[in-house]
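Q: What residues go here?
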């Protein structure tokens, strides 16, 4: 009699564009249920973004990551490596002592959009302190002597640097 609905399955391929936002709607016109007037409704997909275990989205295109750094690497300006969301390794270094209270920015290493724009990657450092230090007084005195030196003209070998992080004074909420 034409008053019975028949459920059918239909596979729809959904392309999620880079930079999609929380609660953004993706609409497939005329792919929903049949209405009583025999027209077809739209299928509306509402995007819910799952939080990443390491990276945090801080706005539309910028992301934040915490990076552990050993005390010795911190004090010797060692080149650091992190695995980006795109699974590529990013190597970076600093020309000054890293301050764990600050955020550092890698320009154009955030989220990428279809229009070609890219956000920034912000890094906050967590220092891994050694569990114990040699308690010998000669060792302590040598360490004090070294740490009191002026490192303002410290040279980093350019071949070891892929990116140079820059200070970013604004407080990034995490």
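A:
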């Amino acid at each position: 009699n034409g008053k019975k609905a028949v459920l059918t399955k239909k596979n729809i391929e959904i392309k999620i564009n880079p930079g999609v936002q929380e609660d953004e709607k993706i609409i497939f016109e005329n792919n929903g249920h049949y209405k009583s007037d025999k027209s077809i409704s739209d299928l509306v997909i509402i995007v819910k973004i799952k939080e990443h275990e390491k990276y945090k989205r801080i706005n539309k295109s910028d992301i934040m990551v915490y990076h552990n750094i050993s005390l010795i690497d911190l004090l010797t300006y060692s080149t650091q490596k992190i695995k980006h969301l795109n699974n590529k390794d990013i190597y970076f270094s600093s020309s000054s002592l890293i301050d764990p209270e600050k955020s550092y920015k890698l320009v154009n290493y955030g989220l990428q959009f279809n229009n070609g724009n890219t956000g920034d990657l912000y890094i906050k450092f967590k220092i891994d302190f050694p569990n114990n230090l040699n308690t010998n007084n000669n060792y302590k005195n040598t360490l004090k002597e070294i740490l009191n030196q002026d490192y303002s003209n410290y040279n980093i070998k350019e071949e070891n640097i892929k990116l140079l992080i820059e200070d970013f004074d604004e407080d990034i909420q995490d």
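A: Context that may help when evaluating the design: The CA atoms of residues 9 and 31 lie 11 Å apart. Residues 137-147 form the longest helix (11 residues).
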